[in-house]
């Protein structure tokens, strides 16, 4: 009998590169292989109802009465995040794994919460009562408070991955709400990713249980209230309504600041125990004053990091500053409150990963960077200079699908969608565009020339749409000029099969999409999964939409980039258009900092201080675009096409497509770009005849336009060293002190008195060189 062929469907989060050769499965998963990989006995897994099917391993979920739930989990990869899916009716919600064991666990009063089925099974095998949640984002939906009632002690396992903190935040919140008296968070030991990994390294169930017991004994169970807010710095800070601002530096030293003058002067005292060791009236906004205060304490034997004084200055300034006004775009609407879901995203150590996961969950496959860039562009509407994008690729490559993936994560008020219209439709429409993004479904709706085109270009670059139109006065019959103005700032996003005309093209960043067979195969896989019911349409990402609403009305929108000058020195300036493109790079950095603002330092005035991590995010999504600009418009696809033409030969489109293994239409689009750039020549001038392609001008060399994070850090360090030399000379009197050394070597010239006046803020923050991988599966989960 012929062996039945295994089938495999593409699901969100599964790298497209694993699916080659159609539906075949390169490394099939059997129950024995899964048991071996997880160090769990096959007999034990079978006793839980796990069984092997021709497609993989089926994992049943059971209700509290032991009956099988309609929804079940299916594994077709050794790691759940590499290949797993829900099976069963889509109108039935999933449940936690292990409900049938919950009542027995409740009698003991103790329960462990973990992610996934194999982690839960590992705990069961070791004799630990456990309940599994299928994913960090499902906790609040599936872990109802009533499930934990009756438990006196709950431990929450924190996986060593990006979802671990999300899982812990949600699970501990539910546990405390349910009245659990003792809640502990157990982190994974070094080298272990999850409880099953810990189980395998322990060697046997008894050793694993002993390790858990030891970890519980060594872990504090004093958790903060899930609604409490902790300061972003490591110093404990408090602020009474009318009392002094206090920052606790150590057990031996605390700082107190009280307002003593209208000009913002503070009485700052350092207290050790009950003794005031130093008292001084100073302007906390001045870094020089803070530095002198720290040096004076050092002479008295107290080590004081200037970061503590900076935290005190921030607290002091916040107390004197009235609450911010609501966002102008939301006039007439109530301010959005900080919901638990929004707070959870803001508290995540990597909120950008949450956005990427939502894009994947929406069924988007392949390179995540284009939709992520669209999302950052939509977020940049809150800034003073939004990002403008044009997605340029052949027909059917998914340009609008890419934009839609980002639009699904923001409220509808964040953008105005123009699917089709005349050249003046945008001018006369009764819509406001301030702090919004205008999305043209097709670039054909954008006028190419004339006054209307000038108005659109003005909207994209000058933050205002101004258009003068003559009208006849009905009474006097005289013609008068009426000015139509739509103030910005306004962003612009569009799609096209060809580059935009030059004047508008230099005002937008051109984004290219992959057109290779692998990407097409991945898209077809998603479509097949939807058609067979294996993959359900993604639910609305309401938590991310609420995040954007909160950013509009309550979040801080002032962002400074302290490393902008050294970054500007490192970016090549050969192209004149970089005068417009560099500000868009800065806006992308600021948009990333907006989303990650909970983990960013603030100036005394309350502005968010961007980190090099934010540049790493911006560089990841913008590097191919800036390299395309630096290479005079040569994309990797066009370069590969030109390089496939041999010297001295003439070749047709069809032959070139066969050589590249691509469709003729795809190659034709690439060839048209190459011919327009002069890198290929077509000797055939007769219409309707096959092209006679030959090599033209030499291709421009590959250029890396955006420096690495490490290179920017080195430039900052050099600037810091120069400043230190200057300060030393100033102290010796060898240079003029008319201007402070901080002002002379400030990294951002827009910093004024009252802001963070030195690069110490950057130095204190850990810089990360682990930029997002440029590959389409860089976030393989």
The largest sheet has its strands arranged as 9-10-11-12-13
Beta-strand percent range? 15-25%
- What number of structural domains do the residues give? 5
Residues in helices, as a percent range: 25-40%
Structure summary, number of beta strands: 24
Main sheet overview: 5 strands, antiparallel
Q: Which parts are unreliable, with pLDDT below 50 for 5 consecutive residues or more?
A: 1-26, 222-241, 321-334, 735-781
- In CATH, what is the class of the largest domain? Alpha Beta
The CATH topology of the largest domain corresponds to Rossmann fold
Q: What best-fitting shape do the alpha-carbon axes yield?
A: globular
CATH superfamily of the largest domain: P-loop containing nucleotide triphosphate hydrolases
Mean model confidence by pLDDT: 75
First and last CA, distance: 37 Å
Q: Tally the helices: what do you get?
A: 28
Annotated CATH architecture of the largest domain:
3-Layer(aba) Sandwich
SS-based class: alpha/beta
Q: Keywords, please?
A:
single chain; 781 residues; alpha/beta; 5 domains; 5-stranded antiparallel sheet; 5-stranded parallel sheet; 28 helices; 16% strand; disordered C terminus
Brief rundown of the structure:
By secondary structure, the protein is α/β, with parallel strands linked by helices. 37% of the residues lie in helices and 16% in strands. Strands 9-10-11-12-13 form a 5-stranded antiparallel β-sheet, with helices on one face. A 5-stranded parallel β-sheet has the order 15-16-19-14-20.
